[in-house]
């Protein structure tokens, strides 16, 4: 929704020293500027803003009286839609070292390779913490074209202190990955806040000791996806042929039309374990769902035409590993829910329709990772969840455990065997030949535990 944001009008605070921290996951790479935060008085002059520009570089600048008074722009670009990232911006103009008055940290590492590195003068005031300035999260509040497209969690602002990123995150001792600290900073200062965004009924709740009141404009959607457990989605960067449109956190896809077949893939590839997700077709065009071993090439190719792809067609037929089409199960159409059960421990693939495993639980035999010849025809040595658009176009809604089809929440959701995710149907219910019923949501916590 246009101009979806959380905002609050600030009172007077420290205009020379503060820290902003946010965990974000990008979804739409749109070629349009996307705001993370913006403090302004209703227009672009004055403002202090952090955003991804049209080239996907991260920018942060302070603009007052028609003059830019401090601007950092990264040299590298940020196009990863499959992972969470942590951004910390420190405004510290009382610092005697000119190069330390504005600092950006990404996942605990300071950005030092910058295309623009224009630090403000010593003691330069900023628009943030100016009385009457509106602090906007996820948009700028005056132009609806620049909203952030993605997920946010644990957005914190500390008024009056220049803090290290280690106050909000830390290196995991086992994996070496930067991970979240979920506690709110203890002394947030006058305008400080901590928006955890974990209460689906109160997304703009300030959990800091200030307990400030915020307002939400537009519609925010709660998600199980979070910095501690990253969920799979579909991948808008793998959208090469007859490209379509991704939305709803990359869990909805509308194909670009045209007469040729093409497929889309998930952000996470799988090599072991037992996995489950759900797909709802929203159009009656001929479509297929299944698994593939590579991204869509820049040409027409169906799931079944890939090296090791396997599919379940809307007419009830199926193809495994490029073999011949065989009768498999029931046909499906608009608003049926197709379950994909991928067992890479036994190299079996099952499909369900509205909670019933098809073919009386007889799994389709797949090649398996160990027998793949990589890089045969671009094979990537893993399996991705895939949806294929056939003639006439199609619309899909995917649920990897976030509990929504499009914008509609699932009533009375089911969890996987480990209590993770929210599905329409129980992933562990049904008949499966040669397989246990321990199918899991595709997310980093399960992949770490079960070797996906």
Write the layout of secondary structure elements.
Elements: E1 5-9, E2 17-26, E3 34-40, E4 47-52, E5 57-64, E6 67-77, E7 85-92, E8 102-106, E9 109-110, E10 114-118, E11 134-137, E12 150-159, E13 169-171, E14 178-180, E15 193-195, E16 215-217, E17 245-247, E18 252-254, E19 262-265, E20 274-281, E21 287-292, E22 310-313, E23 317-320, E24 326-327, E25 338-343, E26 348-353, E27 356-357, E28 364-365, E29 384-389, E30 395-399, E31 404-405, E32 408-409, E33 440-441, H1 444-450
Parallel strand pairs: 20-33
Antiparallel strand pairs: 1-11, 1-16, 2-7, 2-12, 3-4, 3-11, 4-5, 5-6, 6-10, 7-8, 8-9, 12-15, 13-14, 17-18, 18-30, 19-29, 20-25, 20-30, 21-22, 21-29, 22-23, 23-24, 25-26, 26-27, 26-28, 31-32
Descriptive account of the structure:
Helix content is 2%, strand content 35%. It has 452 residues and is an all-beta fold. It folds into two domains: 5-217, Jelly Rolls; 245-450, SPRY domain (Jelly Rolls, Sandwich). The longest helix is centred in the last third of the chain and has 7 residues, at 444-450.
């Amino acid at each position: 929704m246009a101009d979806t944001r959380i905002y609050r009008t600030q009172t007077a605070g420290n205009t020379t020293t503060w820290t902003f921290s946010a965990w974000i996951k990008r979804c739409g790479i749109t070629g349009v500027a996307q705001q993370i935060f913006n403090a302004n008085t209703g227009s672009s002059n004055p403002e202090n803003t952090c955003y991804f520009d049209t080239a996907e570089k991260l920018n942060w600048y302070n603009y007052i009286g028609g003059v830019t008074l401090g601007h950092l722009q990264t040299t590298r670009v940020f196009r990863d839609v499959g992972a969470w990232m942590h951004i910390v911006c420190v405004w510290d103009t009382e610092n005697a070292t000119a190069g330390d008055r504005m600092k950006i940290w990404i996942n605990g590492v300071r950005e030092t390779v910058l295309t623009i590195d224009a630090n403000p003068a010593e003691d330069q005031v900023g628009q943030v913490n100016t009385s009457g300035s509106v602090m906007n999260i996820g948009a700028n509040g005056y132009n609806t074209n620049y909203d952030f497209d993605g997920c946010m969690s644990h957005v914190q602002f500390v008024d009056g202190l220049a803090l290290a990123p280690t106050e909000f995150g830390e290196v995991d001792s086992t994996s070496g990955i930067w991970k979240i600290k979920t506690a709110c900073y203890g002394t947030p200062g006058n305008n400080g806040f901590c928006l955890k965004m974990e209460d689906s009924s109160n997304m703009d709740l300030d959990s800091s000791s200030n307990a400030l009141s915020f307002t939400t404009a537009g519609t925010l959607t709660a998600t199980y996806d979070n910095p501690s457990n990253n969920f799979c989605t579909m991948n808008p960067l793998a959208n090469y042929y007859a490209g379509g449109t991704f939305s709803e956190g990359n869990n909805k896809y509308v194909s670009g039309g045209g007469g040729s077949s093409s497929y889309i893939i998930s952000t996470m590839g799988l090599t072991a374990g037992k996995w489950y997700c759900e797909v709802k077709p929203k159009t009656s065009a001929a479509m297929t769902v299944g698994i593939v071993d590579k991204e869509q090439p820049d040409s027409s190719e169906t799931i079944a035409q890939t090296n090791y792809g396997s599919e379940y067609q809307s007419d009830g037929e199926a193809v495994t590993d490029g073999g011949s089409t065989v009768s498999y199960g029931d046909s499906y159409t608009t608003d049926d829910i197709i379950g994909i059960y991928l067992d890479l421990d036994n190299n079996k693939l099952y499909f369900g329709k509205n909670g019933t495993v098809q073919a009386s639980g007889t799994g389709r035999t797949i090649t398996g990772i160990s027998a793949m010849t990589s890089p045969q025809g671009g094979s990537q040595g893993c399996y991705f969840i895939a949806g294929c658009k056939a003639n006439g176009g199609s619309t899909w809604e995917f649920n990897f455990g976030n509990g929504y089809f499009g914008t509609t929440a699932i009533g009375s959701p089911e969890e996987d065997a480990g209590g993770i995710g929210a599905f329409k149907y129980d992933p562990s219910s049904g008949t499966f030949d040669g397989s246990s019923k321990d199918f899991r949501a595709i997310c980093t916590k399960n992949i770490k535990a079960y070797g996906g």
